[in-house]
Amino acid sequence: MALDGIVTRAIVSELQACIGQRISKIYQPGDHDLVFTLRGAGGGGKLLLSANPTYPRVHFTERSTLNPAEAPMFCMLMRKHCEGGVIEAISQVGMERIIHFEIRQRDELGDVSSKKIIIELMGRHSNIILTDFQTGTIIDGIHHVTPAISSYRIVMPGFAYTQPPEQNKHNPLDISRSDFLQLYRDADEEQVESEAALEEETEGSGDKSSVRENRGRSDQNRPSLNPAGWIVDTFSGISPLIAQEMVRQSAQGGDAGTASGSGEVFGQEIVTGEKLHEAFDSVMEPVRRGQFSPVIGTNAKGKLVFSAISLTLPEGRTKHYDTISRCMEDYFGDKAERDTVKQRVSDLIRFLTNERSKNIKKLANLQADLEEAGGAEEYRIRGELLFASLHMLSKGEKEVRLVNYYDEDQAEITIPLDPLLTPSDNAQRYFKKYNKYKNSLAVIEEQLEKTHEEIRYLESLLQQLDHASLNDIEEIREELVAGGYLRDRSKKGKKKKKPTRPTLQVFTSSEGVEIYVGKNNLQNEYLTNRLAGPNETWLHTKDIPGSHVVIRGEAFGDATLSEAAQLAAYFSQAKQSSSVPVDCTLIRHVRKPSGSKPGFVIYDHQRTLFVTPDDEMIKGLPSTLKS
């Protein structure tokens, strides 16, 4: 990732279209994110402000997000001070990753008041802070910073806002050629002098390893030997990715050899200050003019990177975008939500995996019992043969050989006896074993069926967690509580009435037909058993845990059917497989057996399609959330 000052400048440049627009709605879908719905000239749209410690960002978004039933306190405060307000200015602090929004709003008394929203995109220190425009006093922040966390500044209501510590770097937009070259020479000379002093000091001690170590440390700081590192340390807002791009261009523009991509040494020659400034100016000139070329590509190490400017990336696919928002939306995708989901589902996955293991072990024990009970008929035959031959037997015998009248060849069999029992009691003992195993066969077969069903159910839940959103997780947790698998951890007292209609993800096919996808058993049952019409088409992977998919409407072409089958395969356990079998039939041929597990159905009159899930195609289908 390279969310640096250049990317921030591209964002601010794009957001100038928001000036004059009104903030009509404010939502807080997660702990770190705010979504503004804008109205006004230019068409408005949805703006995402994220202080996520791993994926901080600001950009327009087209993604649909589920919002909590009860807005968090920070969201309520933002609504009070900013909802209905007009955006008057959006600016960047120098080349730092700090964006200021100036908002003008009328308060509840009708008086005009101005607020400033400060978004700091600084990794784990990222924050969204609301301040009073006139006084600079903090009204609140999405993340509080207490004196115990930082001795430099406090982010708490009532305190004056203090900017993050300055790095004392030069602004790359304002630097002249002569100043650049002077900084380059000064840094190089300073490092040479420092190296000489260190060598003189360490050579006096006779420690050669210290000499080598100090020389190596000094070389890392010399702009002539590590130009990329010097650029990052000297100029604000430039990430290592862009610094390496500058060095790469300076090397390719002269005779400095082939770029290694590491930003350290190119060939056997040193990159000169003049060549480095040419590349530096070439990269920064479009930034000065506000001309950006957002791109996503793969670097030399195979890592996916994005930039607000063009990159001379090594061989590999690159994708260009017309706006930085589309670039960031594509790059980040649902990474932030997936990370949050992983944290929230870890306990559920552990619980479901343990339960599945227990049932697999139980299945093996039941199979062993079934094999043992399979000999029930032999015990009956032994008992009847003993009764028929009581006159030939006497107490104290350990075994007896008798003709087996039930065998076609009338072969003799050996029957073990208990010498402490009478012949009659020995016969009765075999009849008791026969009745015991005969009765247990029905129980074992019933338990086998239930255990197989339990394993299928647990595997379906594990599959659903692979595709779950934050809302889906809560629905799955509630399902497990209702099924008696988990204890209800919610606070006792008056419980809120839950919505009767779950929220479903709805895709629109290339033919304009809506395709509904259930992401958990609650959604699957509502979609299949209540929402869909009898003549609408239902799809599901054949004998593989997955989502229920319904094509809403009876008139559609092969393209819609193929895309629906793709969705069924994608939202299943076979997502990474090829030629996935997907059954499709009409809803009227799908039914839920009485007493079966949630989400389980049987169906007939199906036909099977074979598809290979195409990630790009599915991401290209428009989708929204509906309840």
From TrEMBL:
Bias (Acidic residues) occurs at 191-204
What domain of life does the UniProt record list for this protein's source? Bacteria
Q: Which UniProt keywords apply?
A: Coiled coil, Protein biosynthesis, RNA-binding, rRNA-binding, tRNA-binding
Q: Which GO terms describe its molecular function?
A: ribosomal large subunit binding; rRNA binding; tRNA binding
Which Pfam families does its entry note?
NFACT-R_1, NFACT_N
What residues does the NFACT RNA-binding domain cover? 506-594
> Can the keyword Cell wall biogenesis/degradation be found in this entry's annotation?
no
Keyword Ribosomal protein assigned: no
Q: Where is this region: Disordered?
A: 191-229
Q: Name one GO biological process term.
A: rescue of stalled ribosome
Q: Which residues form a coiled coil?
A: 434-461
Q: Which GO terms describe its cellular component?
A: RQC complex
Q: What is this protein called?
A: Rqc2 homolog RqcH
Please report the organism this UniProt entry assigns to the protein: Paenibacillus sabinae T27
